[in-house]
Amino acid sequence: MWRKDGKDIMGQFYALSDIQVTRRSFAWDINDFSHLQVNKKHSVSINSMSKNVLITLDLFFSGGQYSEETINITVCFSDPTIEFLTFNYFLMDAEGQRVDCGKQEILSDQFKKETTFALPLSKPK
């Protein structure tokens, strides 16, 4: 802080900030995962405690005939009050073990459009 006339300011100053963090964890069961078709989206909505849709996630494969299929997730935002999203995602294998697939951080300026990212896994042909 400074004064408009350029002189020093003496004293103590206090600031108060109010940060609200909402956390959601969920399991997304995708039936017949190994038989999913390219570009066929499977969706799930993340709701607030009051049942309003906050975020919709779409999982789909891309790639194709001559290459491995990439697993993608698209995040669509429905709540304009969300300013920052940290998304940690895991896949669970057939034995129930979690496979860490990484973390995405999405800032509010990206919320106006959907955000798509690829998981660091692929489905071999």
What does this structure look like?
The protein is mainly beta and 125 residues long. It contains no helices and 6 strands. The strands form 2 sheets. The chain has a 4-stranded antiparallel β-sheet with strand order 1-2-3-6, with no helix packed on it. β1 and β2 form a beta hairpin. The model has no long low-confidence stretch (mean pLDDT 79). It comes from Caerostris extrusa. This is TD and POZ domain-containing protein 5.
Structural class call reads mainly beta
Report the count of strand segments.
6
Sheet with most strands: 4 strands, antiparallel
Instruction: Give start-end ranges of low-pLDDT stretches.
Output: none
Shape: elongated
Query: So how many helices?
Result: 0
Distance between the termini: 61 Å
Protein name: TD and POZ domain-containing protein 5
Organism: Caerostris extrusa
State the gist of this model.
This is TD and POZ domain-containing protein 5. The chain has strands spanning about 40-45, 55-60, 70-75, 85-90, 100-105, 115-125.
